[in-house]
Amino acid sequence: MLKKIIILSTTIVFGLLSASTIAQDGHDHDEDTAHLHGGDIQPWRTGAEIFVNKDLFETDFGDISGGPFVTDDPGVDVNIQKGTFTPGNWLRFQPVGQLLFWDGINWQSTVPNGERIEIKDVLDNAVTFHPHGVSENTGIIGQIDSEGGLHEHLDFSIFDASNTPGGSPGAYRIQLKLFESQPDTDISVSIATSPVAIVFNRGLEHEHFEQAVSAAADLNHNAVFVADNGILTIHEVKALGTFYRVKLQYIGNDQFQLIEAEEIPAME
Fold it and tell me: For the chain, does the N or the C end have fewer beta carbons within 10 angstroms?
């Protein structure tokens, strides 16, 4: 019975992944973003909700100014043509989930050498992502200007187990959710309904990094499909009141065979 429930779920997920890929291919072609910085997170506000130009961003550690373990990309560049924020308010971010590492096949919640990623906010406060979760504090991106916009770049750094800048070669993924607050408070007046993900390249060849990015795009939808080996990983499936992390082998004709099911706590 469990096998039937999970295979039915994967058939639906596989269809959604295909539809998502098609949708993303043409996502930004109709947007006039000439005034914005390409590759940046580009939020705008409508009512009490924050929207962004996409839900996945990629970047490389190794800024010339910051060294091999630091980057200030992606920045945050408000799209004021689509919707402004309140002048004087703060645009902020809430860390979400945990740090994930790409092992060449799957995204894992373990890292090779105790790595963590830190974001320094505009007040130089550190917000941390590690494999077991995230720090409780939120970060401040910057203050909204008189036109309702903001363009800011914060520093992202990777550290290893020795608590010094460093990181094993691979790709790393974090998530954060944007929100707006009045000055000197952390009570939101507008908020994004879903987080954005950022995937960092630490020393991978471009082709291998793009494989990690592609898998991370699927991960945003709770599933990772690796075409090279035909394995679909779904990070949370509910069956008969219990939650599982499952792996399935693609056998053709949009069908999968269950090869592994691990019982897990319910994910937030």
Answer: C
CA distance linking residue 31 with residue 128, whole number of Å: 33
The pLDDT tens digits for 48-94 are 999 999 999 999 998 777 789 999 999 999 999 999 999 999 999 99
Task: Encode pLDDT of 140-158 as tens digits.
Answer: 999 999 999 999 999 999 9
Q: How many CA atoms lie within 13 A of 103 on its CB side?
A: 10
Whether 246 and 233 have beta carbons less than 8 Å apart is answered as: yes
Q: What are phi and psi of 217, to 5 degrees?
A: -65, -40
Q: Return the C-alpha torsion angle 5, 245, 215, 78, nearest 10.
A: 100
User: Torsions phi, psi of 188, nearest 5?
Assistant: -75, 145
Side-chain-side CA neighbours of 143 within 13 Å: the count stands at 9
Whole-angstrom Cα distance, residue 141 to residue 92?
A: 5
